[in-house]
Design goal:
7 helices, elongated, four-stranded antiparallel sheet, alpha+beta, 2 domains
Length: 203
């Protein structure tokens, strides 16, 4: 009897985690305009929802099933968000303002494969270099690291554009140079860590 109860709880948990994870991803994809993929996910999502809800409704007298259903729902939101972060769909638009307009900021970013539009601006304390940078979301952290290496005091603000149409940016960020740059950063970080480990071992 106890074994059956535990099995039922596990089934409810798994169904709800998968269902809510799919639901979270579907909503995100819908906002990103991926309606056909979202519709496909929605088909499996509603099937799982019906099965899970049916199991709970057939066993309303068992409080542990209701608890498992609620916990599964919460875990599903977390798992779905983690999956979306891993997928890193779409692009991110980053606005950067540097207090040092003499820095060769734009060229260095373009060499890394990022799409950059720059212009001279004027702030409270003098001239500024303003830039608008487009990058796939999966390379967002790499972009921030590159900006901070060039100018640690740069002001950065980012947002996710809903629609992108035409222009040089999208063609530029698809050429693979960003990926190569990220691989170089990761390789350098690994080498640095290996050197530190070797030094610690020798000491």
């Amino acid at each position: 009897m106890l074994e059956n109860a535990v099995t039922m709880i596990l089934i409810i948990l798994v169904i709800n985690i998968v269902y809510v994870s799919l639901s979270t991803i579907r909503i995100i994809l819908t906002f990103k305009g991926k309606k056909y993929i979202a519709a496909s996910i929605g088909t499996f999502e509603i099937m799982l929802y019906t099965v899970g809800l049916g199991i709970v409704l057939d066993n309303l007298g068992r409080i542990e099933n209701l608890i498992a259903y609620g916990i599964g729902y919460g875990l599903g939101v977390i798992v779905g968000s983690m999956i979306e972060e891993r997928l890193a769909l779409g692009y991110i638009n980053v606005n950067v303002i540097s207090a040092n307009p003499d820095l060769d900021f734009t060229r260095r970013l373009r060499e890394k494969g990022f799409g950059v539009t720059s212009w001279n601006a004027y702030g409270m304390d003098g001239d500024r270099l303003a830039m608008q940078i487009l990058t796939p979301r999966k390379y967002e952290s790499s972009l921030y690291e590159t900006i901070k290496m060039i100018d640690p005091k740069a002001f950065i603000i980012s947002y996710e554009p809903k629609n992108i149409n035409g222009g040089f940016w999208v063609k530029q960020v698809k050429k693979g140079r960003i990926k190569k740059h990220v691989e170089q950063i990761e390789k350098k970080a690994t080498e640095t860590e290996s050197t530190k480990e070797a030094i610690r071992t020798n000491d």
